[in-house]
Structure formats: C-alpha cells, structure tokens
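TA notes. Do not distribute before section.
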Amino acid sequence: MKNRKMEKSIHTKLSRDDDYTGYLHLDRLLSAQVPLSDPAHHDEILFIIQHQVAELWMKLLIHEIGQAISYMRADEMAPAVKNLARVRHVQNQLYNQWGVLDTLTPSEYAEFRHVFGKASGFQSAQYRILEFMLGNKSRTMLKVYEHQPEWHAKLTHALASPSLYEEFLMHLERQGLPVPRRAIDRDFSKMRDEDDEVVAVLKTIYENPKRYWTEYESCEALMDIANNFQFWRFHHLKTVERIIGHKRGSGGSSGVSFLRKAIDNEFFPELIRVRTEIGE
C-alpha cells in the first residue's frame, strides 16, 4: 500500500473554535452516552446510541416537514415536494436502524433493562410532535410531558396547528378545488372523520393527473411518508417482540399489543380510501 502524502494546502493550524470538532460540538455529542449499569454493560452503549441517533433523525424530520408546510402555505408545491422527498430518505435511515438493534439478544438486554427505570421511547416528545404534524392528534398525550414545560408548550402548539395533510387540503381549496370548509375551517386539535367530499376531490386529482400533476405528485409523496411511518412502526413492534417478547413496556404500556394497535392508526386515510374508488 502506498503512503499517501498530505496535500500542502490542507489546514493544520487549527483552533477548537474553527475545526470539525468545534463546528459539530463533538465533545458534547460524544460525551452524551452515559451508561447507568455498573459496571457498564457492553450493550447499553448500543441501546443509548440507537435512541439518540433516532432523536437526531426525528429532529431533521420535524425540520423538513415544517419547511414543507411553509411552502404549502405559500402555494409553492415544487419545493414542498422536494422537502417531502428528503423526509422519505430520512425515514429510510430510521427504519434501517432497527437492523442494528435487532442484534441485541433478550438475555443481553435483560442484564441492563432495569437501570433506566420508567424511561421509554413512548415518552419521546419529538416522536409525538411528528405524529401531531402528520395528523394523529391526541390531547391526552400531553399529560406525559407536564413535567417538561418547554416540550409541553411545543406539543400544545403542534396539537393546535394544521397537520401537513390539512395544509395540503387548504392548498387544494385555494387552487379552486371544492374542498369542504368543514375540513379546513375547524379545531385542528381534534381528529375528524373521513369526508366523502374530500375523497371526491382526491378522486378528481387521481383521475386527471395531467391536469393536476403537481397535486397528483403531492398526494403520492404524502402516501410514501405515511407508508414509511407504518413500516417503521411495524419493525419497531417486531424488534420489541424479538427482544422482550410480550413483557410490559418500560413506560408502563402493554408492550407489543400496545404497539400493534398503533399500526391500525393510518395517516391520511382519505388518500387510502380514494384508491378503492378510482375507476369505479
């Protein structure tokens, strides 16, 4: 193997304020993995990093969906769809992470599970914000965050704000499509039932893709995100089942059966229903 010489133009006179470590705050980031097991169990680091990395990806998802919403409000759908494309790729990263955690065996996990007490992924404020941004609203979930005023405020705001899908419906209405007012002029903190008139609007788009190409493309981008979220939920369920079987969750939930119920909770159900009605 040849010895590669360092190029003369590479910076070597650096300070902690302008180098890679400083820009990324790596000292802080890489010191945030603090096992509670004593002595530290080898696999607890895996468990901590898995969840910390997931939180970083979720932060980016919130950032990208928020930008897509801003573009939709301005009726700039092309850049909104670009943001949604990035969301899909980030979701793929989140999904593929489960393969790493799947290497944790039940006996290994049992040796340190007790150390984090009541802590559970169920309590992830960012995950809940994502659910709210995608339309799965639940005021009762706010109780979990009453001891964290900053997150409680962010969640309350996300609960009351239109979801990504509702912003899309408002865009459709501004384009002259007959979206009923009851679907977009309402209390957004509450879930609404499927609306026949909304489904009819979506059917018009799908049956006239050349005329409504931007809207058609946006519908498919939304469906990709909804499906990816379901794939993620399912792999989460199977990973939990593989590692702890049907034990109760650390946060007090019923565990696998609780996660299974979430899979029945579809985002954008009108976009699914319209597929049944197209061509009929």
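Switch to the second chain here.
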Amino acid sequence: MTTHTTRMLIIGSGPAGLSAAIYGARAGMQPIVVQGLQPGGQLTITTDVENYPGFRDVIQGPWLMEEMQAQAEHVGTRMMWDTITEVDLSGSPFRAVGDSGDEYIGDTLVIATGAQAKWLGVPGEQELSGKGVSACATCDGFFYRGKKVVVIGGGNTAVEEALYLTNHSQDVTLIHRRDSLRAEKILQDRLHAHPHIKVLWNKAVDSFVGGDTGLTGVALTDTVTGEKSVEPTQGAFVAIGHAPATELFKGKLAVDGGGYLIVEPGTPKTAIPGVFACGDVMDHTYRQAVTAAGTGCMAALDAERFLAERDFAAGKA
C-alpha cells in the first residue's frame, strides 16, 4: 500500500475533473486525479462532438479527452489508474482509499464523479448506440436534421428533449409506457401544443430494430392491449433520467431528490469546507462537457482560495 499526498485530490477524470486539474496544476497545487471506472468520463463513449468550443470540424469524444488528459499532465497533474472505494470527509486533509489499497490524502477534495444516463436494457440498445440510439438530444439531435425521431420517457427530461428535437425534425414522437406524463404542467402544455410532436401512450419498448446501416425502428408492446407494433424511426433518444455517481458520499454529503450533490448556489462548494463538487455529479440541468469544464475550473479556483485563506490564518496564528 502506498500513500499519495497532494494539495488537491480530484476524483473523476471527465471534463470537470481534468479542467480542475489543469487549473489546480497551474496554481502549483500538484493535483492528483484518480481516474475511476470510466477514465475520460461520458465523452469517451461519444463519437462525434461538434459543440465543444474551439473546433470548427467534428471531433471525436475519446480524442478530446486524451488531449485534456495530456494537457493536465503537461502542467503537472499526476494521473492514477485507480477507483476510490472509501472516503473520509471528517476534515482537511481528506482521505480516500482506492480499489488498489493505495491511500490518497488531499488538503482539498474535488468530486467530479459524473453521472450515467439510465438505459432501458432492451435488445439492440447497446448494439445501436451511436448508430441511431442516444441518451442526449442536445448532444446528438443535430445529426438527425430532417429525419423522423422518437423520444422514450415521460418526465421533464423526455419532454424537454422532444421539444428540443423540433429544432431539427418536423416529425418527433414521444413514447410513454403510461397514459399520462410526469413532467411539469407547463412543459406538458408546450408539448401538446406543438404541431410537430405526437405522443404514443401506453407503449413499452421491447427492442431497438436495425442493422449495419443503423436504427430503423422501435419494437413496442401496448401495455393495455398487449398489441405488438414497430414504430419506424431513424433516431431514438432514451430520456428516462440520469444516475449521478454519488454512492461514495451517501450519508457524508447532502444530495437532492435526484441523488445529485447539493452545492452552494452558483458555486461548486459543498457543505464541508474544502470539499467541492463539479460537473454532472452536481448539475442535473445542463449536463454538457463545456459546462462541466466550467465548473471544474470554478472548483480549482475555490480550492486555491480555500488553501490560501487557511495558510494565511495559520501564518498569523
């Protein structure tokens, strides 16, 4: 077992964690990033990215994360291939234990563990992911301009995605397994009033249908009559919510109703001084790479201020 110490310990290596690392390293904090189960975060399973600022042409998600990691390392970040299994947040310095048995000690802690889209778990979903099946309309909707698309779900996320997709398609279908939506009334009103959206009620998705050329349809069962059908489509967006990776922090940090870490509004500060949360683990609204990177920067700047104030107070004592 090895003990690693740092001024700033970062858990998670997506855009939020790596942006925090870049700013933290430039501030001389010699950050350590523990990469976790999915090094690079959700962008490593996203192929075409064309909404990240600075690139006129479409870029690949995995490439972008490789570049971010290389930049973080170049300015002095230490990357650790490990997964944190236990944390002690009782006070600074904060302690984390990895799956490897190694111990990580940080004067400040930045939590950037992200979130995962919830999937249906039906046949064809994984096979056609990126070939017509997606969990993010704002990421991928642009690729379905003028095509027939469906959204699966009944909450705010599903209705927002359906409305967003009308920017690109004049044929949007919302598929819901019940006969009423859970979304806020104002969103439901906008959905029902929209001329380019229709709703299929009481339909459960059995599978996604397609082949080498991509998605061609969604196989459905009527939850009332049991009748089988196939809804033809070129794009299907699974919008049944996200699950933030907050297991490690249960009972140690406050979470909201969706399981996201609660921070002081407009900041990445948690209720524990010196512990910061950034990216999708605390952001249930925007969930974009660029916003995650922005909050990662904020976390590093706040961590630097926290240490400067603490060191100044200690020097004066």
